[in-house]
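C-alpha cells please, single chain.
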Amino acid sequence: MYRLHDAGFSAYLVGGSVRDLLLDRIPKDFDVTTNARPEQIKKLFRNCLLIGRRFRLAHVRFGQEIIEVATFRAAPSSSKFSKLHQTAEHGMLLRDNVYGTLEEDAERRDFTINALYYNIADYSIVDYCGGVNDLKQKTLRIIGDPRQRYHEDPVRLLRVIRFAGKLGFQIEPTTQAPIAELTPLLKHVPAARLFDEVLKIFHSGHANEILPLLHQYNLLEQLFPQLAACLEDEQKKSIEKFLTLICQTTDARIAENRTISPGFLFAGLLWAPLQKSIQQHLQQEDNTLAIAYSMASHEVIAKQIEQITIPKRFSMMIREIWDLQNRFHKISSKYATRMITHPRFRAAYDFLLLRAQAGENIQTLAHWWQQFYEADPAERQHLLEQVPKTKKRKRKRKKPV
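Here you go.
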C-alpha cells in the first residue's frame, strides 16, 4: 500500500479485513483497492500476476501470502458502466472492467459491512454506505436494489447466508425477502465456482450455524438436491443429527488449526443420498451389497457433479471412505490388519464413529474397531482371536468336458 502511495496512487485496505478488524477478529486475508490500473500495478511489483476476465485483478505475492489488488470500479448506476459492461440474459455480469472513483467503487460492493475502506494517508475509515453503523447493529444489508444485485451475481445469495452464520448477524428485511425466490439463479453460476463457494461456507469454522440457514432459504436444494430430498423423508431427524456432527467436527478441526479435507465433508453431506440409492439398487436388481455400494456411489457423485464440480482427487476419496464403511463389517485376522494400513483408513474410521454417534445401528461394530485401532499389537491379536470364524465356502469344481 505504501509503494502505491509513494508512486502517487491512492491505496486503501478494503472489505472483509477492515470489517474483521473492527469486530476484533483475525482477518483471513487482506484486499487492497487503488486508482492505479492493473498494468500500472504490474510495473510497480515484479512479483505481480494479472488475472481474471470478468474482473481484472492484480495478485501481488507478499511473503507466503497473495494480496489481491483491485482498481476502483464504476457503480452499476454510472452512465459509463451501462455503456461498457456486459451482462447475460438473466442479468448476471459477464465483464466489469469499468473503472471509476472511490465512491463509485463503494457503491458497487455487495454489502455495507464490506464497503469499508482504511486509508493509509490519514489512518481513517472511509464509509459511504453506512457500514460502520450496520456493524454496530449486527445487520447484513445489501447495497442497492436486492433483486438487481442478486441477478448481477447470484453467488451473493450464498455470501449473505455465509456472513449471517459466520458473524451471527441478522439479515435486513429487504435484503432477505427475495433470497428463497431467486435461488434458481445459482444454476447460471459455473459449477467450479460453486465448489469454491461451498468450501468457503463449510470451511468458515461456522458450518454448523450456516447449514440450517441454507436449508431454510432453499439454497441447499440448489447446491445438494439429493440431500435436500432426503431431508423430506421420515428419517429426517437422524440425517440432521449426522449432518450436525459432520459440521461440528469440521468446525472443531478448523478451530484447532488441524487439516480438513473436502472429500470427508462431501462424503458426509452425500451419505444419506448414498444409503437411499443403495436400497434402490438392492431392491431393483439382484446385487450384492458391495456391488450396490459401487453402483450407488458412482450414481450419487455423478448427479452431484451436475451442480457442483468435485475434483477427481476428492471424488476418489469420497468413494474410498464409503467403500471402507462396507468393508468394516468384514473382520478377520488378515483383513483387519490390512485395513488399518489403508491410506484412507483414518478418515473412514472417523466417519464410522460419527455414524455410530448419530444413532446408526453399528455401535458394536464401531466399538470393536475403536478397541482394535487403539490397542497395541498383542491386544489386537487377542481381539482377533475372539472373532467367530466364518466357514469358507467350497468352490465347486467344474467337471472336465
